[in-house]
Amino acid sequence: MPISQHVYRRRVQFPETDASGIVHFTNFFKYVEEAEHAMWRAAGLSIAERDAEIGWPRVAASFEFKKPLRFEDEFNVHIRVVEKTRKTIRYSAELEKDGEVLAVGSLTIICVRRQPGERSRARDIPPEVDARFEVAT
After folding, report:
1. Are 34 and 27 in contact (CB under 8 A)?
2. pLDDT of 116 above 90
3. 124 annotated active-site
4. What is the pLDDT of residues 49-96, one digit of tens each?
5. Which of 70, 71, 101, 132 is the 20 to 30 A CA-CA neighbour of 88?
């Protein structure tokens, strides 16, 4: 059965914060990527299989920050598939702590063919991957 969303639970680690104990903004992108990988595992897949002939580079990413995260905060990353094309998957993401939205963002990935000695080229998402994800309603 295809999945369209996933919730990933996380705790802020000390190296992710600045001198004031607030999470540096770049880590929000890492949190979404961790949630994405967890969603792929929940779908029975790996986004980065060894020796795979395809890859999934990021072609767009954005965040709007509403409230800070601090050292040792526990929070959830809600990730949803909001669009699929023949070659791309776009997610929306929401970071939430105790029912309060801290940040909202999006991430778009594209399926590429990887061949040694050649440039990566966009290709259609393989049917076995496409069948595992559906757009959230």
Report:
1. no
2. no
3. no
4. 888 899 999 999 999 999 999 999 999 999 999 999 999 999 999 999
5. 101
Strand 74-84: give its sheet, edge to edge: 5-11, 74-84, 88-97, 100-110, 58-65
Residue 135, in any domain of the structure: no
Residue 62 covered by a domain: yes
CATH number for the domain spanning 28: value is: 3.10.129.10
Q: Determine, yes or no, domain membership for 12.
A: yes
Q: What is the pLDDT of residues 8-50, one digit of tens each?
A: 999 999 999 999 999 999 999 999 999 999 999 999 999 998 8
On whether residue 93 sits in a domain, the answer given is yes
In the set 18, 51, 124, 130, the catalytic residue is 18
Range of the domain at 69: 5-130
